[in-house]
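Instructor's aside before we start: the two examples that follow are unrelated to each other. I chose them only because their records fit on one page, so don't look for a connection. First example below.
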Amino acid sequence: MNADVHPPGLTQRVLREQVAAVHANAPAAYLADLLTAQTLGIGLFVATRRWQVLLWMALHLALTLRRAYRRYERSPDAAAQPEYWARFNARNVLLRSCIWGLAPWLCVPPGRNLGLWVMVIVMMMGGCAGGALSLAVLKRNIPRFIVPSMASLTLALAWRGDTVHLFLATGCLLYMCVMIIFALQHHRLLTAALTMRFEKEALAEQLSHQIAATQRASAEKTRFLAAASHDLRQPLHAIALFGAVIEKKLQGSEEWHHAARLMDAVGTLGDSLDTLLDISRLDAGEVSPQIRPVELNPLFLALNNVFAAQAADRDLQLRLLATPCWVLSDLQLLQRLLSNLVDNALKYTPRGGVVVAARARGPLVWIDVRDTGIGIAHEHLGRIFDEFYQIGNPGRDRAKGLGIGLSIVQRLSRLLGHPLQVRSRLHRGSHFRLVLPAVTASGVVPLAVCPGAALPLPQRVLLIDDEAAIRQAVTGLLQAHGVAIDAVAGEAEAEAVLAQASQEGLPVEVLLCDVRLADGADGLAAAQRLRARSGSGLQVLLITGETAPQRQQQMLDAGLQVLLKPVAADRLLQALASLVQHDAQPVCTRS
């Protein structure tokens, strides 16, 4: 980071830290300086018996006591006044150096006393070297501490005038220059270290602010999508149900093909909405995998049921090879991951087919998805997992999806801890490999895959939904399939219907309830109250457009079956049928 982009207040922060460091070292430095001065003074007084030595010792002791009285730590706002304390320290350093500079003049008597001079030179040079290291943190201290004392020593030696003293003076002068250069280099190193430290702290602080802002934006996005999801899913749910009614009534007529194409478009729109919301939930970390043993054969069978018709429509072969392998994973998330891989393979395979196979490799299981499609050029491999990135689809053909499928695959593989490998050759096809931990099947009860076969429908259903369009659509759909239905807008009306049905001896078998009702009423709580009053024979099926994970967890904790809007007609009928056979069939939820 150069000087033009320093964080605001960096110079002041560096100065504050330098002043604090100098004053933190001050007690030890002053004690060492005092002991050195008093030891030198005692030695010189014993050798010379000069009263000037005692005067010099007294001056040095007075300065030390003055410094001890004005303690930096005693000031409550010392850190807020770095410039004041830097000047205070510089004055003390200058006074100390000046007092040391008096030693050669006061403590050494005239004459040829080389022994005394050697004692003074050694002690002053040693004190200069030690003080320069501790005081060089502040640049202003360097000339104030070194120059007065060493210049005075040099001048005192030169004043004697003979060759020996002039030689010693020259050596002291050179020593003073070397010490100044050394101290300045030391100061630059310390200042650079402090500057780098504060720059890194500033960058870390900026990064933390950016991370916090990103997290807030992600949370706001999730809240927005959760709120918008309900409003978007409601009309789509109604369209899907009305379309199913029209499609059933037009079956066998010339107009049936238009209705079928309409339902295909509605299904594509619902899938796109689900995909976008899945991306948001995965990015926000709101999907928690439930890792447990998973048998791959039923999972492959479910994938075959989903994609067999799509492959047949495009004259492609879809082969999901039987396997005895079991893995540790989350069944629903793993099925979603593999579904996206198979769907992507089918979309980009004009001829040939797609093969899905699993192989045991020691403690691991490899699930391979191979296709004979258009392949991926090497320069595109690094971007195929980016959102909305599609190769060979510049016109954004919706038949080829939104370009989010592989992005979800990568997120799910990271969430589940299943490494994903990809190899591809242009015009030869692609090969995706998922690596999962293996588990033995002994003593493990297989996880059931939701059945696709339709079961007998209930004879009477009670619907609670505050939107008239939804009530009309569901009523039309169920009546078309021979199911009696009472559609009401709130809990009070539903309670009246249940009471009347009980009196007539025609009980309601299934309560179909929207989770968000008018005026903020809680459909989950209403359904639980109605079920408690009617008895356990009343099955409950919740329908919701809310995707907030906390809300979904509340519904799952209640042990009730939940369908996420928009609900396709066959999906709704299958869920109602499974509730009639509740004791024999597993409960399936869409997440």
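Example two begins here.
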Amino acid sequence: MNHYRWILKLPERDKVLQLQKESGWPPLLSLLLVNRGICEAREALRFLYPRLSDFEDPFQLPDMKEGVKVLGEALRKGQKIGIYGDYDVDGVTGAAVLYLFLKELGAEPAVLFPHRERDGYGFHAHLLPWFKTQGVEVIVTVDCGISALEVVEEAKRLSLKVIVTDHHELPPTLPRAEAVISGKRTPPSSPFYHLCGAGVAFALVRALRSYLFETGFFKDQIPNLKRYLDLVALGTVADMVPLKGENRLLTFFGLPLLSERARPGIRALCEVSGINGTLGTEEILFRLGPRINAAGRLKEARLAFELLVTEEIGKARERAEILNRLNAERQRREPKVLAEALEQIPAKIPSGLVLFQEDWPLGILGIVASRLAERYYRPVVLLTRKGDLLKGSGRSIPEVDLYQALALAACAEDLAGFGGHPAAGGLKLEAPKLKRFAENFSRAIEAQLSRRKPPLRLEELQPQLHLEAQAEVRELLDPNFLEGFQRLAPFGPGNPEPVMAFSNFEVRNPKRVAERHLRFTLWQKGTGLSAIFFRLPEEKSALLLKTPDLHLAASPVLSHFQGRQYLELKIWDIKEGNGEGQPLYFPRV
């Protein structure tokens, strides 16, 4: 009956009590902070009330000094700078940040994005001559290039200097570029480790401004970099990187700027997306991000780039309308690919699903792979034919590192190329090797699962729901809790939306909303709180309304309506109790 496997995180009682004593925060908020590794009052204050001065020195990133020296010299000599960005939200926003900053310095960068269908992901040698025709002498890659050893060598042959900025997993050998700037080159505990492509580009911009200031470049006003945080936050959230370290600061300060809609492209994109209120992570993931990605998926990423950098609202609205139509086209194509993929699913689900069809549109495969990975809770690779090769995208589940699965020799030897990170990747291979690759892919996944501690069997794979606390409605409505809770956001990977268990409650005033959802009042000890269960299955609806002894898994959410902010519960799952009405799962702190 239960879709999720509930994972119960028991509180570290001593640490919670100590933080509560030092900070004065309520027990529930102290528990949530400790669960995020924040155990000291000073650390909690910095987390809840961050400052712009909390950003770390970007020169901690390897090769940063070398990179800014090359760019500084190019700016002083008036050399043309080229920007080569990936075609997704991360690459487009990162390229936009770098472009706008260089323009502010008086440069006129030449910007190029690969075409998903013609070129595929990555930094490509056959596109280098275009930069030569533009008079470019220095190329900066954004969100790509970390594995482009041969391309960088070709660039050297063409007398092009290359600065690589990327965030994908490191290959065994780095390209011999003037600089290779990546958070992955720092320790995993570093605040830079989880930066996305846009975050790395912004770190480069921060370091370049500092270098130029110290070397006397600025004659007048020094550029204010805060204005770029809206674009960096957009790329960071859309790329689903952990919202910790620098990423938390980028999103904490960037999301309010995004909500101001000062940039014409953001304003126009919100208009076509039907967003009227505050912009948060959900609006980026489900409204803005898909429309920006639609440009690279179905046409040219440059359309999205031009939307973000234009200063003319008319041009912005024109571009936004194009992206909106492309997104609608993507939505029309997606069900067909999904249906055709479902027809190929075998009766016995393997460890990893590898599906192929000749005519699938390449730009849709990542989205459909995500749908299938969610439905079957298995890593999924979808492939289509492009010329002499099969090309495609893969998506994974939290228990399996997709990049490592592809990188295993058993899989890598069959691949003509691959790249990505633990959750997603791209790949290409020759058609005759498809069957062997599919078999080896499943073996690589099983090997990963067996190495986990404790080991996981395939039949144990199930979506997990990590519950952090046993809570009561009155605790959530405590003003002191609410004050701190709203500052825990933004939520996302690395800083998940808190999920809590609720017991001993009544369901009052149930009401169906849009036929698929149920809204009701969760009543507990004389206090009520609005709750909504999205896409509630019929069997669980009967359970919720007729069974007196239940446990709910729910997240408190701050919602907005007609300019008013209010707290409600978003229900994830329900379980039947043991008939005694006891809070089964958590000792109280």
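DSSP finds 21 helices and 19 strands in the chain.
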